[in-house]
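Need tokens for this chain, all 225 residues.
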Amino acid sequence: MYVLIGGSGLVGLSLAQKLVELGHTVAVIDIDPNACRYAREQVGAMAFEGSAVSTGVLLEAGIRKADALAAMLRSDALNLAMVTLAKHYGVPHIVTRMRHADFAEPFRLAGANHIIGTVELAVSTMVNAIEYPQVESMMHFEQGQIEVLKLSIPNNCYVVGRSIAEVAQDSRFPSGSLIIGYQPHPHEDLNIPNGSTVLEPGSTVLVVTKPGSLHQMIDFIEGCK
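Here are the structure tokens for all 225 residues:
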């Protein structure tokens, strides 16, 4: 894929680096010549010096051939302008960073496919880290409507020795939840389990659930026999 990124701050450059590592062709646009130099020399991305909301710069950067665009500029207003221009030039997939929730609807109307609320996400992540220290990691989807948890299976907990099918059929397992990943040992790969997969002590599961079911899910997985 050819991906355009507007803004080469910490988030923009981190995104660019990850995409380059995944084999995508990435072009960064930024007004700072030093940031552009860093993107070329350290990240391995192309870089275009200038405003990411300038039609001339966007055309020079190849916006007409871009498969995706990420607006990661310093303000919501600038990101909104970039999203609008990306939609105008026919970019099929548009992602934007959002600082203030008031911009959510304008971003959607302008054509953003994904809106990442950085402040809300950061606060939510920190709250979850404080409330659920036993959770190894937590990801949020659809503006927090879905949570994906990575949980360790304690040695003496209720689910040890049970199959995923048995666990899912238990009346205490939160409805609408699903175990989508299983890692038998920290040094082994995470894999997609099936109903017959047996949960071993010290293993790790990846669980999809609703925010309102977090406490119930954690209590169920960690419950003692």
